[in-house]
Amino acid sequence: MSGLAQDSDRRFGGILVALQLATREQIDQALAEQERAAGAGPRRRIGTILVARGAVSPKHVVQVLELQGKSLRMCAACDKSFNIVAPSADQPAACPD
Q1: Exposure of 75 by Cβ count < 10 A (0-12 exposed, 13-18 middle, 19+ buried)?
Q2: To the nearest 10°, the Cα dihedral for 48, 50, 51, 52?
Q3: CA gap 62, 78 in Å, rounded
Q4: pTM of the predicted protein model
Q5: How far, in Å, CA of 62 to CA of 14, rounded?
Q6: Distance between CA 92 and CA 13 in Å, rounded?
């Protein structure tokens, strides 16, 4: 994991590749799917796409988000998931939608 600290690619997919949790090809395919679906509703997150494809587990998604200093939250009202930076356990996060 020390190589990750020196890695300039701190994007979600880059971290998965650096940790050998996904291949560059899997990331590229998921990014292409994300781009194709861009105009057809809410933006699908790369982690969601990779989990749906069976490339990574939900646990891996949470692990990478934690490495990025983020947390995954679910909106109680609309059931959408979203990431927040530096979450505070006693501070509720508002849904971005």
Answers
A1: middle
A2: 80
A3: 21
A4: 0.72
A5: 15
A6: 27
b/e burial code for range 39-52 (CB count within 10 A of at least 16 → b):
eeeeebbbbebbbe
Tokens representing 65? Answer: 């988000």
The answer to whether residues 32 and 38 touch, using CB atoms and an 8 Å cutoff, is: no
Distance, in Å, from the CA atom of 88 to the CA atom of 93, rounded to the nearest integer, reads 9
- As given in the structure block, the two tokens for residue 73 are 């939250």
- Output the six-digit token pair for 3: 């190589």
User: What one-character DSSP code corresponds to residue 16?
Assistant: H
Residue by residue, pLDDT tens for the chain (97 residues) are 445 544 446 899 999 999 999 999 999 999 999 999 888 877 888 999 999 999 999 999 989 998 988 877 777 677 666 666 655 555 666 666 6
